[in-house]
Amino acid sequence: MNLTEAERDLTAFFAQQLNRTIDSDIFRGQIPAGQNGIAVRIDSVIDSDRMEPVTCNVQLLAKYPDRDDGLNFVGMIPRIIPVWNVLLEHITVKSLFFRGSAAMYDDTDGGAVKTFVSVNLVAVLTA
To answer: What is d(CA 42, CA 7) in angstroms, rounded to the nearest whole number?
Structure first.
């Protein structure tokens, strides 16, 4: 499976579900320096003895200048997850579910305090 295509498909899926624009306020892999928004990233593949389905750890990482925006993001995710059998452009999401709970924390970014949110998911994907 091409994980780059899978990550692009997952980014497009979350962009649609969250009413975001790719490369404007939702990004594949990481949030560009100096910008706010959401990153969709495949962090790792969980070991398996078969080629498919592929089970991946997926992270949604959000960065906002206002804590309320982070809190609202946390509230939106349970409206989307869990997911079963969704056909995307290059992959099928057999399942997508939470791995633990969302974590919200403050940190500095370019000298300004920002609110970060990390949502960890598990995705079972086929090509």
So the answer is: 6
Q: Are 13 and 33 in contact (CB under 8 A)?
A: no
Please tell me the pTM assigned to this model.
Answer: 0.93
Tokens of 73: 């993001």
Residues 6+ apart with CB under 8 A from 126: 1, 52, 53, 54, 91, 92, 94
- Shortest CA distance to 109 belongs to which of 77, 69, 60, 66? 66
Between CA 66 and CA 97 the distance in angstroms is: 27
User: How many residues are recorded in the chain?
Assistant: 127
Three-state DSSP class for residue 121: strand
What mean pLDDT comes out for the span 21-41? Answer: 96
Phi, psi values for residue 10, rounded to 5°:
-65, -35
Q: Detail the DSSP E strand segments found in the chain.
A: 26-28, 37-45, 54-64, 83-87, 92-98, 103-109, 112-126
Mean pLDDT in residue range 80-92:
96
